[in-house]
């Protein structure tokens, strides 16, 4: 009897001593957003949420943003291999596919091979967590629609994104769904917010309504090179409760906000 009691007590103490994982950040609709993937010099944007590159942003810069009350998002490409990243050599040739049109130095990844690329991406998430980021923006989630060199399907993509979400959440990181509006019904319950590019110009912003209905922000970014009617974009964003932002496609610090 005493032995059983001691074992139970040890089990309780083991559970009690485990660190409590904080719940991932879920930004509400209307949360202001800034996105700087090039030439970030450590300035503190006015927006509540700031999205910057994982590798090119230092832990000190993340800490400075957090000290000003910002939620900080780390950008990583999860669906492509980039020839300038420090971990590029970890990806075997067998998972590296065709080039991404218009993006020199990038090639599609075989996201079906989670056993191969999973540990590399998990290490990136660990780096994101270690630097103090609150969230992760995973890029290039639309390989199933592209000429990747692999027979990727929509089911493969959904499975991969759900795996990513679980990995992020295990680390206490929030994660967003980028573009792929047709996957929203299958993924809105797994993701904490969404990020769109050109949804107003291309006419699919309403596809993100399930995120707004779930109390999750949609960061809607439009680009200057499309020549959109900015006032009309702002009006549509207000109607749908999106978080609007106008950027140059280079994603430098310049931006324009709705009045």
Low-confidence stretches: 1-19
Strand order of the largest sheet: 1-2-3-7-8-9-10-11-12
| Class based on secondary structure composition and strand pairing | alpha/beta
- Shape descriptor: globular
Rounded Rg: 20 Å
Supply database-style keywords.
259 residues; alpha/beta; nine-stranded mixed β-sheet; three-stranded antiparallel β-sheet; 8 helices; 21% strand; globular; disordered N terminus
Quick synopsis:
With 259 residues, the chain is of the alpha/beta class. The protein has helices at 2-17, 59-67, 114-130, 154-170, 184-187, 199-202, 209-213, 230-240; strands at residues 33-36, 49-53, 71-77, 80-82, 96-99, 106-109, 135-139, 174-178, 193-197, 218-223, 243-247, 255-256. Helices cover 32% and strands 21% of the residues.
Task: Describe this protein's structure.
A hairpin with a 6-residue loop joins strand 5 (96-99) and strand 6. The strands form two sheets. Strands 1-2-3-7-8-9-10-11-12 form a nine-stranded mixed beta sheet. The protein has a three-stranded antiparallel beta sheet with strand order 4-6-5, with no helix packed on it. The protein contains eight helices and twelve strands. The protein has helices at 2-17, 59-67, 114-130, 154-170, 184-187, 199-202, 209-213, 230-240; strands at residues 33-36, 49-53, 71-77, 80-82, 96-99, 106-109, 135-139, 174-178, 193-197, 218-223, 243-247, 255-256. With 259 residues, it is an alpha/beta fold.
What is the fold's blueprint, element by element?
Layout: H1 2-17, E1 33-36, E2 49-53, H2 59-67, E3 71-77, E4 80-82, E5 96-99, E6 106-109, H3 114-130, E7 135-139, H4 154-170, E8 174-178, H5 184-187, E9 193-197, H6 199-202, H7 209-213, E10 218-223, H8 230-240, E11 243-247, E12 255-256
Parallel strand pairs: 1-2, 2-3, 3-7, 7-8, 8-9, 9-10, 10-11
Antiparallel strand pairs: 4-6, 5-6, 11-12
């Amino acid at each position: 009897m005493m032995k059983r009691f001691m074992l139970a007590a040890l089990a309780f103490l083991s559970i009690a001593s485990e660190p409590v994982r904080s719940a991932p950040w879920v930004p509400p609709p209307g949360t202001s957003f800034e996105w700087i993937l090039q030439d970030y010099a450590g300035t503190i944007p006015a927006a509540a949420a700031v999205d910057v590159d994982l590798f090119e942003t230092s832990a000190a810069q993340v800490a400075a943003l957090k000290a000003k009350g910002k939620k900080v998002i780390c950008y990583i490409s999860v669906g492509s291999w980039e020839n300038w990243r420090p971990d590029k050599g970890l990806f075997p040739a067998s998972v590296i596919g065709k080039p991404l049109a218009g993006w020199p130095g990038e090639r599609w990844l075989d996201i079906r091979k989670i056993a191969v690329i999973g540990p590399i991406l998990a290490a990136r998430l660990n780096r994101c967590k270690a630097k103090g980021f609150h969230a992760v923006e995973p890029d290039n989630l639309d390989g199933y629609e592209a000429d990747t060199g692999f027979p990727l399907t929509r089911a493969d993509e959904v499975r991969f994104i759900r795996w990513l979400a679980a990995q992020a959440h295990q680390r206490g990181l929030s994660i967003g769904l980028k573009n792929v509006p047709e996957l929203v019904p299958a993924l809105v319950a797994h993701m904490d917010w969404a990020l769109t590019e050109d949804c107003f110009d291309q006419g699919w912003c309403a596809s993100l309504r399930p995120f707004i209905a779930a109390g999750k922000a949609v960061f809607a970014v439009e680009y200057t090179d499309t020549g959109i009617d900015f006032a009309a974009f702002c009006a549509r964003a207000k109607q749908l409760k999106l978080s609007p932002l106008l950027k140059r496609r280079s994603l430098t610090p310049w931006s324009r906000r709705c009045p």
